[in-house]
Specification:
Helix content is 71%, strand content 0%. The protein has 154 residues and is an all-alpha fold.
């Protein structure tokens, strides 16, 4: 009986250490120990303290406190997951004004929104070369037509 009570009290103290105002948890080991505090342990403790009203009140307060800490843990975990998307949103404060390429400006504005909406890739060299060759062919064809028309009229 005393071992179960001592174990439960140590877990509550550990939970208090985990959820101080500065840190969510201090070490991964502390977090693993916190995760092992199961509701069955609280039920087992309640069986031993049924006859002692003062101890029962204390255990009830500890149970409520532990549930509150679990809620805080879940909330902070959700906050950290939501902040993970914004972890690498790093840019100079005047980056948009300093950028000269409009496509880069649009990309940065798009990236400053929530989540990871897109990515910036390199220029497709093969496609640009192909487009350039097609443009040069069209220019040559137009020059050939102009020469042909001028030869017919002279």
């Amino acid at each position: 009986k005393q071992l179960v009570i001592a174990d439960t009290l140590s877990r509550v103290q550990l939970n208090d250490k985990i959820f101080n105002d500065d840190n969510v948890y201090e070490t991964p080991t502390d977090l693993c120990l916190f995760a092992t505090a199961s509701p069955t342990r609280w039920e087992e403790l309640a069986k031993f303290t049924k006859d002692d009203p003062e101890l029962d009140d204390h255990v009830e307060r500890l149970t409520k406190y532990a549930k509150k800490l679990q809620d805080v843990f879940k909330r902070r975990q959700q906050e950290s997951l939501s902040n993970l998307d914004n972890l690498f949103h790093i840019a100079h404060a005047d980056a948009i004004q300093l950028m000269k390429i409009e496509e880069d400006r649009m990309f940065l504005q798009h990236q400053r929104g929530p989540g990871r909406p897109g990515q910036l890739g390199g220029v497709d060299k093969k496609l640009t070369d192909k487009e350039e060759r097609a443009r040069l062919r069209a220019v040559k064809e137009e020059n050939r037509r102009i020469k042909y028309v001028s030869a017919l009229t002279s």
